[in-house]
Amino acid sequence: MTADPYEEIRKEFAQAERARARGNEGQARVCARRAAGIAVREYLERKGIRPRSTSAYDLLNLLKDDPLLSPDLRLIADHLTLRVTEEFKLPVDADLVAEARTLCDELLK
Hints:
Layout: H1 5-21, H2 25-46, H3 56-64, H4 71-80, H5 96-107
Helix pairs in contact: 1-2, 2-3, 2-5, 3-4, 4-5
């Protein structure tokens, strides 16, 4: 049973917004990353590529090397794979939820 990727993505972003509203930015980032992973998988499958991994992290790393993707979208994929610091902060100033939305919108056009 394959779920509707658009519905899965919508649910992840709704969860991200709820987590952010509770002040749980880490959980919001996780949800954003999962939403992006769903979009990447859909994008790759449309191109005839069957990714071996279902991990959002692995899929985003695959996307970072896609020469057909704009530099802006590759940068977003890079941000979504960054590790947090020991203080659980991102090493860059980025809103991963907003960036993931942009990535999803562009990949699913």
